[in-house]
Amino acid sequence: MAQGFTFDGEMMGAMMSAREIYATELIKMAEDGLDFMVMASDNTGTTTKLAEFIKKFPERCVDAGIAEADEVGMAAGVALTGVPVYAQFFGPFGTLRCTDQIHTDVAYNDVPVRIIATHGGLTSGGGPTHNTVLDLAMMRVIPNMTVIAPADAEQCAKVIRASYTYNGPIYIRIARGEEPAVYQTNDYDYVIGKAITAKEGNDITIIGAGIGVSQGILAANLLKKENVDVRVLDMHTIKPLDTQAILKAAKETGRIITVEDHSILGGLGGAVAEVIAESGIQCLFKRHGIPDEFAALGYPDDLYAHYGYNAVGIVKEINDMLKRAKEE
After folding, report:
1. Residue 302's CB: how many other CB atoms inside 10 A?
2. What are the tens digits of pLDDT across the range 246-264?
3. N-terminal to C-terminal alpha carbon distance within the chain
4. Strand stretches in 50-127, DSSP E
5. Global confidence as pTM
6. 304 and 310 in contact (C-beta within 8 Å)?
7. Pair 209, 155: CB distance under 8 Å
8. What is the pLDDT of residue 272?
9. N or C: where does the chain have the smaller number of CB atoms within 10 Å of the terminal CB?
């Protein structure tokens, strides 16, 4: 791991919006001469940075209005010609409302549609009807679908660029608003399906996706003061999963906790649990995220604290795990 790879204080880096950064990257890609289409729904193309792309390249864009299922069908039709399509949705409607079309029109035909789902996790502010907390579980069981939750906005730009030449459909999950930068520099290799060791450690491993990475690093920095050496893996790709990184962590640290802004059922935690269980490696394991319930209403940071997957809550869970390990 490069020196100064991640922010190494009790605070993360600058707050940045993946919704803005990904659209900026699309503009750069179009200016570079890459051939692709962009689609939007429910006003997403007029209220964000994507509006600038639409203004510059109107011939590349389609706005489906409040008709997300139609947007998926149109995206699949264009992608059948071999042209990649970047289709933005409000997260809950792009998954819950369009599962049939994503499954049958996009994934079954194995076409290059990049579904960009905003308002990931508990970032929507709209409560249980708008929380996007089932999507990772739903998307990862669909054949041919790649599932990605970038750790920060700049990494989202890397995902968008890497996705252009990647085969098949991709589901990309980002937050509604700004989130902290995880990495001090963008001079690191990003490969879809390959985890990033954001922090080395030997006592326990935090495996995070999305906001789970920044909160995991903050927790690791707090635990360092207690002489607990924490490894943090940025598992940005939930499918295909980097099983080798998981097994290496299980063997070397013997303790793993997953952190995600998602239901603990079927998402990152479920995927990692499957790998560990099938490996036969003895490893103390904990899934950390949203319990099996409709989430409370509130601001994201307040909800992260309420459900215990902010930095302070992660520290508590890890201390409980280490105490349990000693007792056993």
Report:
1. 13
2. 999 999 999 999 999 999 9
3. 33
4. 61-63, 85-90, 113-118
5. 0.95
6. yes
7. no
8. 98
9. C
Q: Given this model, what pLDDT does residue 1 score?
A: 43
pLDDT of residue 9: 57
- Could you tell me the two tokens for 250? 């299980």
The residue-averaged pLDDT of 111-140 equals 95
3-state secondary structure of 100: helix
Six token digits for residue 7: 């922010």
Q: What is the Cα–Cα distance from 144 to 86, expressed in whole angstroms?
A: 17
Pairing assessment for the beta strands 146-148 and 237-239 based on DSSP bridges: antiparallel
pLDDT of residue 324: 85
Which residue pairs from 45-53 have beta carbons closer than 8 angstroms and sit at least 24 positions apart in sequence?
Answer: 45/88, 48/19, 48/20, 48/23, 49/19, 49/20, 49/21, 49/23, 49/24, 50/19, 50/23, 50/26, 50/88, 52/23, 52/27, 53/23, 53/26, 53/27
Q: Decide: 27 and 56 in contact? Cβ < 8 Å.
A: yes
What are the DSSP calls for 137-206, one per residue? Answer: HHHHTSTT-EEE--SSHHHHHHHHHHHTT--S-EEEE--SSEEE--BS-S-S---TT--EEEE--SSEEE
Q: Which two tokens stand for residue 31?
A: 């200016």
